[in-house]
Structure formats: C-alpha cells, structure tokens
Amino acid sequence: MPIRLYDTRRRDKVDFTTLEPGKVSMYVCGVTVYDHCHLGHARCYLAFDLIHRWLEASGFDVMYVQNFTDIDDKIIARALETNGDWRRLVEENIEGYYEDMDALNILRADAYPRCTEYVDEMIRIIDDLIAKDHAYQAEDGVYFHVDSAPEKYGQLTGQSIEAVRSGAGGRVGESGKKDHKDFALWKAAKPGEPTWSSPWGEGRPGWHIECTAMSLDYFNKEFDIHGGGHDLRFPHHEAEIFQGECHTGHSPVVHHWMHNGFVNIDGEKMSKSLGNFWTIKDILSHVDAMVLRFALINAHYRSPIDMNEALLRDAERNYNKLLETYVEALKLVDSNEPVTLPTADFNAQDELSRTLAMLERLAEGFAQAMDDDFNSREAIAKVLAMVREIGKLKHVNLDQADRHAFAVFVVELLEETAGRALGLLPSREDALAEPEDNPRKVQIAEHVEALLVQRDDARAAKDWGRADAIRDELNQLGVIVTDTADGPVWDLA
C-alpha cells in the first residue's frame, strides 16, 4: 500500500510521490526564537517528527531541513524590552528549543539554517524578482507585487483574488505598498535596529523571503514536502509560492504542502491574554515528557486538539500501561538464548498461537494507519490493543521457553511500532533503570496524603458521608487507593 497524504494545495488525499526514487526532501518552517517554545510548537514539531519517522521506517532516505528565524520584529522588540542583546536572546532561545525538542524525543533535523546566514541569498532573489517585474522598490523597502502573478493567489487557502479585489478599500496603510495585497521582501532600516547593506539601502529582510532562500538553497528549484502549522498557510506559505515560483520560473516548487492542526486549551484558543498560554517548559514541570508526547500524537496531525487535565490523565494512564508492558517483557529477554515461537494461527488450539496471529494483524493495521496520512491516533489505538492482547497471556501457563520467546517477540514488536515509529519508548537501558517519581504524583502527593488522613478520621468517626466525599475527590484526581494491613496505599489510575 502506498503512503497517502493530504495535500493542502490540492485539497485532497493523494499518493505520496518523490522527485527522486527512495529519497525525500522535506522543509518545515521553524520557530522565531524570541521566547520559549509553547504547546503549539510542540504540536507542530511532533507532527512532522512522526512524518519524518514513518518515512524513514518505510525505507526513504529523508533530508529534513528546519529553519530558525533569528531576526524579526518580535526578536527586536523583546531584546529592547529586556535591555538585552538580540544575538544573545536568539542563542538562549535556540538552546531552549533544543532542550524542549530533545525532552519530547523529537529527532533532530538534518540541518537548521538561520535567516541571518542567508541575507546575501535573499538580496539576490529580491533583485531577480525586481528584474522580472514581480517586485518594486518603495521608500520603506521592497515589496512583492501580487498582481504580477494573480494566478498563484489563494492556492493554499482557496481565496479568490477577484473577491479580495472587490472587497478592498484601496488603502495600503502607512507604507510604500502599491496594493494592500503586496508583502514586504526588504524592510528599510529603522533607528536602533540591526541592519544589512543592500542595493536598496540599509535594512533587513522581510519574513517570507527567508524560507524561500533557505529551501531553494538546499533543494534547488523544487522539493517534495513543505510543512508547518495551519496558521502559516496565509500569508507565509502563499508568499513562498509567489516568490519561489516567480523567481525560479518553475511550478510547482513544492510538490506536497502539509499543515498540522491547532492546540486549544480547555476549548479555547491558547493565548496570553486569556491566561491559558503554556510553554513546553511550564507543562513539563508538571507532566512527564512522554505523557505529553502521547497526548499530542493521540490525535490526527491535521485535527485540532483540546488540551485539558482529563486528556493528560488519560494519556498518563495509557502510556503507563504501554511502558509497564514493555518493561515486563524486557526483563524476560535474554539475548544469549535462541528463541522459537509456534506458528501464528487464529484457528490453533493453543492460546499463544492465536495471540501471535492477533498481534501480527494489529501490526499490519498499525502500518496501514500510518500509511493513511500518518494517522497516529489509529496507530496508537492498535498499540493499545496490542498491550491488551499481551496482557491476556499473563494468566496463561506457558513454559519457560515459550514465555521467553514471546517476550522477545513483544519487545521487538513494541520497539518497532511504539518506539521507532511513534517515539514513545525510552531506550532499553532507561526502561530498566529505577523509575523516577512521576511529576504529577509528586505534585499532588501532599494533598492526597492529607485527604487520606481526613478519610481515616471520617471513618473512625463513622462519618460515611464525609468519607464518600473524600473518595469522590480522590477519584477526580485520578487516584486509586488500596487499603492494606499497613494502611492505605495510593497510586495514579
């Protein structure tokens, strides 16, 4: 079965084809490094990490490029706010980016070019666009003239240029634009800002031109995949279509456009003004990184996801089941012993053969899900079904050889699916190490211990109503209490 993906430009799911057999060229828009990365960044780069992983698992040699925007209005403004050097701000936030992505087990891209490394190349492209009458110089910089290539308008959003023209009021604001649709390629210098020399005077590049310069430098006139968040379709990615295709004279430059969905918090768009803005560092102080990864990929990458406490608790419970199953099997593996398993057969008399048949079917379903537009939600459902099937054999009386052989099979199956493809498993060494305290368990421990003391007091006083209320509160926290001869013991559900 070929890999199929949803192409934003074609507005349809299509067979994935590459310019060069067996090789994939992929460019994903990176972060503007003016602040710490937030949950939306985690969603985006996890989505393309899954795509990266599955393409490689499918046998492709992937060249993955992701840029850093290291000069921008926001960077300049933040540096002025903090009385800091913009270069130091950039370096600190790039270092923070790598820390966040490594924590989430996101594979490194092959290259991370920076905007400031490509100013000369951007100037060359802008000069060419002016020569071809696709751009013009104004007092405040250089602008791309959208009406010079009207057929390219709205290719990702479906907007009609005629509708935009009819709705335009003719105002272009405080700029040298000829038309409100035009966008900046070069910004003239302003006092106190970093600048570079150009044929149009001192200034700095506009936002959109940087990705065109960097992607074309790595991939020449065309490449396979360009990705980013849903919000980048317009204006950023449509601007790239204008620039790249008008500069190279080649169409399409990008053969597959891919965009991931938004993250909402408790049903509302994440925003600082609403007080629901979560940086990755904020959330990882309360939630295990692999639990967050599980929660964010347990949705199709194109779908919006609503992040809330219930979602995180559900992710934590399911991830812990997966990890427990993997560790239990890993403890039974002895690489020095040969292994032989019975034939997988749904109609066999022994349960081991039937279980192997079911696990092989689930593995096939996993691959089909990932081939179908990288459907990680369905793929995770197959992994959790594997965990349930594996668990059924705990109560079956297998001899030592079969139990060992099955453990080897389970480890390899989970490492291939949940591990290499989904990035959800630690290394074998880390998995077998003594587990650290769960961050959420640490966070609520004092409160839970206090509730358990109150529960004992209520029981001693035969205040059953109060005891039931405490039990309900513990349930809402996702806590399971087991009463033992030595007193109550609790854990997360």
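The record above closes out task 2.4. Task 2.5 opens with a second protein, given below.
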Amino acid sequence: MSAPTTARTSVVACVNCGKKNRVPAAADSIPKCGNCHRALAWIVDAGDDDFAEVAERSPVPVLVDLWATWCGPCRMVSPALERIATDRAGQIKLVKVDVDTAPKLSQRFEVRAVPTLMVLRDGQVLARQPGAAPEPALRSWLDQALAGKGTSA
C-alpha cells in the first residue's frame, strides 16, 4: 500500500502518559504514543477532497459524524463522540465532516438531517443514525454496528 498523501496532522495528548503526539489524518496503521506505545484517539476532519483517503481506507472501522456549525444538536453530541473515540482508541476512528463544506458527501450519503452518524468498515456503510442521541445510546448503536447488527435509516 502506498504512503498516504494527506499531510495534515493533529496533536493528541496520550491519555496514558500525557505525552503529546502528532497524529496523521490518514495512515496505514493506528496511531500510537511515541512514549508509551498505547493507541491514541484518532479524531480527524475530512471533506469532499480527502474523505476516501481519510475514512474509506482506514485500517479500523470509522465513526463518521456528518454535522454543521449552525446545528445545536451537533454541538451537543460532538463531545460524546470524542469521548467514545478516546475510550476506543485503536479500535475506531472518528471522522468529522462539515456538511456545509462537503456538498458532494452530503449528496452521496443523502444527508437529510444533521447530525447524521454512520459506521464504515472498508468504505462500506454498516449503520446509519440520523439525529442526536444520548451517549449510552450512541455506544450501544456503535457496538451493534460493529457486531454486524447495524441498521440503515
């Protein structure tokens, strides 16, 4: 597999040792702490131009958050999604897509409401969840999707 072309990185503090690490938006393997080698939370933004590389070619399942800056429920659910991604470091990747700046993705995934959440594995949609939900419900939905019991709306 070729090296990813996306040069974007973010800085993530390891929840285990506190060391700050650069995490690429796209990679062939999960990001790990350079100090203690624990898996790091993988939370990135993507848009029309880099979604395939960032989300569809991910080595782990992807939780996609299709959201908008003006959406109150989106802002309410975002911290819960980030906690889930942090708790499941090494198991999932959270990819956030602003629907207002990614019209092709909005059309492709037929986004009718925001937030719309999806779980992808190998680029295939395993489950869809329109609208916000409480964190326990989101965790349960994600578990079901990853276990192959996902639902599409």
